[in-house]
Design goal:
heterodimer, A: 295 residues, alpha+beta, Alpha-Beta Plaits, four-stranded antiparallel β-sheet, B: 236 residues, alpha/beta, 2 domains, 7 helices
C-alpha cells in the first residue's frame, strides 16, 4: 500500500470516529465489557487448570506403618517400595517428624497438643509419589499388602472432583466466550454499518470511478480495528487491576492458595484480550460493509 | 488484454439481458462503436437504455452474448477486474452524483485518489480538466453552492480526469434547462473532438436532432434503428 493511501485511510478513520463519536464510544464500551468478562473466564479457567495439575502432581500416597515393626523391617520395606514400578520418590517420615509437622501446621493453635500429654499417636510412615498420577490407585492397593504396612491412603475424592469441576468450568467458559465474541462482532458490525450507510453514496461513486473493493474496505476495517483495539486495551487494564486485587486479597486470607503469579500471566492475558479485540473489530466491519460493495 | 490500437471501443454480439423477474431488457443486440465516435442511445423509458449503460459498467451481467468494452471481455472477466474496466471509462449520470461534503476540487481529485495517483499528477490534471469545463475559479465551492449545470460540469471533469477512452453519459441533460444543456453538449463535443468516444443515452429530441450524430434507437430491448447522422426520429 502506498504511503499517500495510508495517510488518506488514517484521515478517513479519524473523521469517521469523530462524526459518530457516541456510537463509537458505545462500541468501545461493549467491546470492553465483553472482553472483560471473556478475560475473567479465561483467568478462572487457566487458574483452575493449573491448580488441578499442581494437585495432580502432588498426589502422594501416605503409607502408614504398623507400630511394632523393627528398623530392619522398615529398611526392607523402603527397598521394596523403591523397587516398585513407576515410583518417583520415597520419603520416610518418622513419628517425631510427623508430630513436628503437625504442630507447625497448627500454628497459633499449638496449645491443642497439650491434650495429648506428650504422647505421640502418629504412626511412622513412608510418603511415596508416583510418576504417573494414573498409577496412584493401583500402587496404593499393592502397597497395602506389604508386610508391616497398616494402611495406604491418598486424596482420591478431592482430585477426581476437581477434575470434574475444571471440565465443567472449561465447557461453560468456552460457551460463554463464543457467545460473547458473537455478540461483540454483531455490535461492532452495527456501529460500522452506520458509518458505511452514511457513506453509501460515496462508496457507490468510488466503485464507479474504479476503486478496488479493498481500497474501499480499508478505512472501515481500520475503524473496526481501532474500536476493537481501544476496547481491548481498556478491558486488559481492568483485568490486570482485578487480578492484582484478587491475588492480594487471596494471599492475605489463604497463603497457600496456589494462584498463578502475576507475571508473565498478565502479559499473556493482555496480549490475548487486545488481539481478540482487534480480530473482533475487523470481522465486524468486514461483515457490515459486504452488502454495500455490491454496486 | 487492453490494446490502445483497438478500433472498436464497444463490441456487443447477440447480447441479451433477462432480469430475475423474467423481464427481457435487451434482446439479441448487436452493436459496434468505434474509437472517436459520438453515439446517442435513444428510446422511451424502459426501452433498455439503462440496462445498456449498466452492462457497459458491468453493474449487471449479460444473460447471454459477447461484450467487449475497451478490450475487456465483460462477460468472462473475474470480479476483481471490474475496477480496471471502470477506470478505462468515464461515467456521467443525470443526478451528477457529487459528494456534497467535498469541494469541486476534491470531487474531481477523488476519482484520481481512489486509483492511487501521485499527488502532483492529481493537482495538474484536476486544474486542467477544471479549465476544460470552465470551473477553475470555483474549485473551492461545494456542490450546494453551484447551479445544476455547474454541478454536471464538475461531474464531467471527474469523468474525464483519468483520460478514459470512453465516456458513458446516462441522461446527462435530463435535469437541465435547454440553454444549460447546450453548454454541456458543447463540452462533450470538445471532448469528442479530442478523440474520446462518447456514448450518451438521452430523451432529448432537440439535442439529438441538432447534433446530427450516430443514433441508436432501442425499443423493447431491440435496436430498431442505427443511423450514421440521424435525428431522434419520432415524437416523445
Amino acid at each position: 500500500m502506498k504511503f499517500r493511501t495510508t495517510e488518506y485511510f488514517i484521515k478517513e478513520v479519524a473523521t469517521s470516529l469523530k462524526r459518530n463519536n457516541w456510537m463509537s464510544l458505545a462500541s468501545i464500551g461493549t467491546v470492553t465489557i465483553s472482553l472483560f468478562i471473556l478475560g475473567l473466564f479465561l483467568m478462572v479457567v487457566v487458574n483452575l487448570d493449573r491448580m488441578a495439575s499442581t494437585l495432580e502432581s502432588q498426589v502422594q500416597i501416605s503409607v502408614y506403618l504398623k507400630d511394632d515393626i523393627t528398623k530392619e523391617q522398615t529398611e526392607a520395606l523402603r527397598q521394596k517400595l523403591n523397587s516398585l514400578q513407576g515410583i518417583d520418590t520415597v520419603n520416610y517420615i518418622s513419628k517425631e517428624d510427623a508430630m513436628k509437622r503437625f504442630s507447625e501446621r497448627l500454628g497459633d493453635q499449638k496449645y491443642l497438643l497439650s491434650a495429648l500429654d506428650e504422647t505421640n499417636p502418629l504412626p511412622n510412615a513412608f510418603e511415596i509419589t508416583v510418576k504417573d498420577p494414573q498409577l496412584v490407585k493401583t500402587a496404593s492397593k499393592e502397597v497395602e499388602n506389604f508386610p508391616g504396612v497398616d494402611t495406604a491412603v491418598y486424596a482420591q475424592d478431592i482430585v477426581e472432583h476437581l477434575f470434574d469441576l475444571t471440565r465443567l468450568i472449561r465447557l461453560i467458559g468456552l460457551a460463554i466466550i463464543i457467545f460473547l465474541a458473537g455478540a461483540t462482532i454483531f455490535i461492532i458490525s452495527n456501529t460500522i454499518r452506520l458509518t458505511v450507510f452514511a457513506r453509501r453514496k460515496e462508496i457507490a461513486i468510488m466503485k464507479y470511478v474504479g476503486a478496488t473493493d479493498w481500497f474501499i474496505r480499508w478505512p472501515f476495517l481500520l475503524e473496526g480495528v481501532v474500536l476493537g483495539f481501544l476496547g481491548g486495551n481498556i478491558a486488559a487494564i481492568l483485568l490486570r487491576l482485578a487480578y492484582m486485587a484478587l491475588t492480594q486479597k487471596i494471599y492475605d486470607m489463604m497463603t497457600f492458595f496456589p494462584l498463578i503469579p502475576l507475571y508473565p500471566f498478565l502479559t499473556y492475558i493482555t496480549i490475548i484480550i487486545i488481539l481478540s479485540g482487534i480480530v473482533i473489530g475487523a470481522l465486524g466491519s468486514v461483515i457490515s460493509i459486504k452488502r454495500f460493495l455490491e454496486v | 488484454m487492453k490494446s490502445p490500437t483497438e478500433i472498436n471501443v464497444i463490441k456487443m454480439k447477440s447480447i441479451s439481458k433477462v432480469y430475475d423477474n423474467g423481464a427481457v431488457a435487451l434482446d439479441n443486440v448487436d452493436i459496434t462503436i468505434r474509437r472517436g465516435e459520438f453515439v446517442f442511445i435513444v428510446g422511451s423509458s424502459g426501452a433498455g437504455k439503462s440496462t445498456f449503460v449498466k452492462l457497459l459498467l458491468r453493474e449487471i451481467m449479460p444473460t447471454s452474448g459477447h461484450l467487449l468494452v475497451n478490450g475487456y471481455n465483460v462477460k468472462k472477466m473475474p470480479n476483481r477486474e471490474i475496477p480496471y474496466l471502470r477506470r478505462s471509462l468515464g461515467v456521467i449520470f443525470q443526478d451528477y452524483r457529487l459528494l456534497p461534503n467535498k469541494t469541486v476540487y476534491e470531487n474531481v481529485a477523488f476519482a484520481m485518489r481512489v486509483i492511487e495517483s501521485p499527488r502532483r499528477l492529481i493537482l495538474r490534471s484536476v486544474n486542467s480538466v477544471l479549465d476544460v469545463v470552465g470551473l477553475r475559479d470555483k474549485y473551492k465551492c461545494f456542490p450546494s453552492q453551484l447551479s445544476g449545470g455547474e454541478q454536471q460540469r464538475v461531474a464531467i471533469a471527474r469523468a474525464i480526469v483519468n483520460n478514459p477512452a470512453l465516456i458513458i453519459a446516462d441522461e446527462p441533460t435530463g435535469n437541465l434547462d435547454p440553454e444549460t444543456s447546450w453548454e454541456i453538449m458543447d463540452i462533450f463535443q470538445r471532448i469528442n473532438a479530442a478523440g474520446t468516444t462518447i456514448v450518451m443515452a438521452t430523451h432529448d429530441k432537440m439535442i439529438v436532432d441538432t447534433m446530427q450524430k450516430r443514433v441508436l434507437a432501442i425499443e423493447d430491448g431491440r435496436i430498431v434503428r442505427d443511423e450514421a447522422s440521424g435525428g431522434y426520429g419520432y415524437e416523445v
